[in-house]
Amino acid sequence: MDDQPQPTPYMPDPTELSRTLAGISVRSQRLLVNSMRRQIVPGASPEADPLNVGKAFIQMTVQMMANPVHMVKSNLNLWQDYLTLWNNSTQRMLAQDTAPIIEPTPDDRRFHDDAWNENRIFDFFKQFYLLTSRRIQSSVNGVEGLDKKTAGKVDFYTRQLLDALSPSNFPMTNPKVLRTTLGSGGKNLLQGLENLLKDLEEGDGRMKIKMVDPDAFEVGVDVATTPGKVIFRNDLMELLQFNPTTEDVVKTPLVIVPPWINKYYILDLRKKNSFIRWAVERGHSVFVVSWVNPDAGLAQKTFDDYMLEGPIAAIDAAKKATSVDSVNMIGYCIGGTLVASALAYLTAKDDVDQVNSVTFFATMVDFEEPGDLGVFIDESQLTSLEKKMTERGYLEGDEMATTFNMLRSNDLIWSFVINNYLMGKEPFPLDLFSWNADATRMPAAM
């Protein structure tokens, strides 16, 4: 027998626990009252389903009911999977070696904890969830008679629902959370509730998950540290110049156009991962567009304005600063789309020779197949967006960020739910997430 003393489980202080619960109760009531006040606004007509999700699923249900054979076959296949899983799990309980009938993809970080494989119960939860998810997704994708737009929307929101129902998102079925809860006497869940209330308060009743401590990084101190200076500005941007640090200098300067919905320093995070620093250390004179964070005063600025006052103005300013006739360019993300438009504009004017070369980073030029982003584009949603922008004159940066987070919900939503609310931890101080949280607005006309 093991004579070593066993660790005593943590027991929270009753006085501290009572004080914490009382504070949580008061804050919760305040949030609830404020939420109800916002709902009871005279003359307000809240949109029940601005994303048109309900309509899409109704159409899918109608088509499924029209083909009962497909539904029966799908259900039979799912039950067969369940029977196989139950049989394998029973054999494993009897200490027999059995291979899993389904495994997560290598990039699925939800099930990286060893207990998901080594513990029979958690392994059962994992495989049950993965089998169910696979079958539901295949059933939804196999429905015939839906137009491409509706089918894409149903597929996307089905994935969102399945991601939300992952056993990793619940304290009793996540082994890491369960270990932490037992070891801390539930202190992690209390702290997680505190974190949840704090996020709701800072989001004014809306769920605004904190991805990073806002004080973890300071622009110019921890990130965006490559020495540079502003050489030009107009209504929409400042042009930053970064001089090469080498004796030999590349004659043709480099002009970088980042997206106008993010800050430029994605390319200048820290010394070890700064593209701008890398470029100047190899003799390039680098010019970077730093977009303004627009307010209602810039509401009427259009795509044409962004093109003319962005890349076109930057090309001219960079040429004057270095006394050359042409520049090399990099367009990043939607900034690259703007660069492509600028090149078409210069070509139409027979003036494209002032651009020597262009490189695109993560840029779409042909939007005929926008992928999952197309889910957010229909008349109802555009009308809703236009209404918001007409009232304010711009679209808030965090509203766009929510859309992008949904495209990778497991990494950008649920991982933070687990860390912040179930584990009761503060977000990890990652420079990329600090940049991601530093979003900019977009003018209504744009």
Please, could you describe this protein's structure?
This protein has 446 residues and is an alpha/beta fold. Helix content is 50%, strand content 9%. The protein has a six-stranded mixed sheet with strand order 1-2-4-3-5-6. It has a two-stranded antiparallel ribbon with strand order 7-8. A hairpin with a 3-residue loop joins strand 1 and strand 2. Helix 5 packs antiparallel against helix 6, helix 8 crosses helix 14 and helix 10 packs across helix 11. The radius of gyration is 27 Å and the shape is globular. The termini are far apart. About 2% of the residues have low confidence.
What's the structural blueprint in terms of helices and strands?
Elements: H1 14-39, H2 53-65, H3 68-93, H4 115-118, H5 120-141, H6 148-164, H7 175-184, H8 187-202, E1 229-233, E2 237-242, E3 254-257, H9 275-280, E4 286-291, H10 303-322, E5 327-332, H11 334-348, E6 355-361, H12 379-392, E7 394-395, H13 397-407, H14 409-422, H15 431-437, E8 442-443
Parallel strand pairs: 3-4, 3-5, 5-6
Antiparallel strand pairs: 1-2, 2-4, 7-8
Helix pairs in contact: 1-8, 2-6, 3-5, 5-6, 8-14, 10-11
List keywords for this structure.
50% helix; 9% strand; 446 residues; two-stranded antiparallel ribbon; globular
